[in-house]
Amino acid sequence: MKEPLTEELLDELLEAPSPAAFMDAHPAANRTLSEYLNELLAQKGLERADIIHAADLNETYGYQIFMGQRKPSRNKVLQIVFAMGLDLREANRALKAAGVNELYCKNRRDAIIIFCLTHGCSLQQVNEELYRFKEDTIC
Prior knowledge:
This protein is an all-alpha fold.
């Protein structure tokens, strides 16, 4: 499912007869992190257990995130993002769904994360780059 661009959504919102009509037409705008992550798992043919392991999360805690029972920190979401191999747009959608700040290229640490994300780095590789630049690692 291809998501519309923000500009396209804004145009639709401005033309909608009411906020409720817009929200009914775009349920993705209200989805939770667990809904979004599970949608991505299905789209990409990934297994939850594999992602939790690759993200280096405690198994119980990881399942609770995917079931919507836990609200993860920004770093925990980033661990999942790298484990799932998401692109920048998908990563920012996951961060937004989690209620935390999206990646911002004017922030030095975020810029390193964005670079690693767009170059297909693993979680270990991004942590090494962050450490090399004396920034806090993701985990």
